[in-house]
Structures are given as structure tokens and as C-alpha cells.
Amino acid sequence: MNSDSDLQIAGDILEVPHLLQSPREHPATVAEFAGLVREIAADRSGWQHLVRYDATTRWYHRLRTGPGYEVWLLSWLPGQGSGRHDHGPSSGVWTVLAGTLTEHTARGTRAVETGTQRVFAPGHVHEVVNDALEPAVSLHVYYPGLTEMPMHAPQCSAAAARDSGADADTDAGAGAAPAR
Q1: What is the DSSP string of 8-69?
Q2: 125 and 86 in contact (C-beta within 8 Å)?
Q3: How far apart are CA 97 and CA 111, in angstroms?
Q4: How far apart, in whole angstroms, are the C-alpha atoms of residue 38 and residue 55?
Q5: Bridge-partner residues for 66, per DSSP?
Q6: Among 58, 128, 133, 62, which Cα is nearest to 96's?
Q7: Segment 98-127, tens digit of pLDDT
Q8: What is the pLDDT of residues 1-15, one digit of tens each?
Q9: Cβ neighbours, 10 Å, residue 39
Q10: Mean pLDDT of the chain
Q11: What is the model's pLDDT at position 18?
């Protein structure tokens, strides 16, 4: 019978620094981008004072950039919307920081409330609108950074919905998807 413990045989893993992964300086996975969105959303002092409202168009502000990604802050007055669009080659994560937004995709319509987080893949087609009576604020991370935002004709039939199968909308955490 061998009385050596695993620690005696393998050694203490904490004593072998080359086996430990160093923490990433910037996010690189969907989960890490979702975490970045939660982290920024939780730090209201880092974004709340920047929010502006514009009666003529949606207001937006690039809050942060990192290697291969951008973080955008947007405000939406009642009635303002994005138009039906996609984000080109960019994927993303977004959340509503204040208020409620409505997202329209080929798969249907959903209310995206404060704290709800959405994830989307390249080619995801949607329209985001503030249908509420109160202003809304949202936070968006795009990776790679947003280089294009092609607009799409409004949907008017079931065939159009079926033909835009690029809607890769999935919930991340609490629930809903993108909009700049």
C-alpha cells in the first residue's frame, strides 16, 4: 500500500505558476463580453452622467474600446427606434439600463426590460423601438467593433420573415438582443 498523497506525488498546483492561466486583460468569449456588460451596467457612476436625450434622433456615445471591441451607450425617447438592421460581421451583447425597449425580429416581438441582456451573432436582423412612455437607456458591446449597420426593408409578410433566417437571437442571462 502506497502512503504517498496526491500532493506529495504531483506537488502543489499553486506552486507551479506555469500551469496557471493568467487572467485576460480584455474579454474574448461571449461569456466574458456578457460579464463586461454586467460590470459596466452595475457601475452607474461610470455612465449615468454621460446620458443625453435628443428629440430628433437616438443619442449614442462610444463609452469604451478594447482590442477588437467597442462599448456604446444609447438613449431612446418614446417613439424612437433603430429601423430594421443588422450589424454586419459584428456579434454583440446588449442590455437595457433604464426603461423598456421593444425588439422586433423575424421570430416575433419581445419587451426588453431593465437588466435584461441579449446576445446576437453576425447577420442578426432586428429593430429596436422605445414603445414605452418613458425614456430608455441601453448599453451595447460589439465584437469586432461596429464597422457597418446595413438597413433592411420593413417586414411585411410571413415569407419575408422566413427568408431572414439570420436571426440568431439568444438570451444571455435574464433575457433579450442588440440595437445600435
Answers
A1: HHH--GGG-GGGSPPPPSS--SHHHHHHHHHHHHH-GGGTGGG----SSS-EEEEEEEETTE
A2: yes
A3: 14
A4: 28
A5: 69
A6: 128
A7: 999 999 999 999 999 999 999 999 999 999
A8: 555 555 555 555 555
A9: 11
A10: 83
A11: 56
**CA 62, CA 76: separation in Å to the nearest integer?**
15
Nearest to residue 160, comparing CAs of 84, 60, 71, 57? 84
Burial 159-179 (b: 16+ CB within 10 A, else e): eebeebeebebeebbebbbbb
| Dihedral over alpha carbons 28, 29, 31, 32 (to 10 degrees) | 0
Report the distance separating Cα 133 and Cα 163, nearest Å: 33
Chain-centre distance for alpha carbon 96:
9
For residue 16, is pLDDT > 70? no
- Collapse the DSSP code of 162 into the 3-class scheme (helix H, G, I; strand E, B; otherwise coil) and give the result: helix
Q: In Å, what is the CA distance from 118 to each residue of 30, 35, 69, 126, 141? A: 11, 12, 16, 12, 10
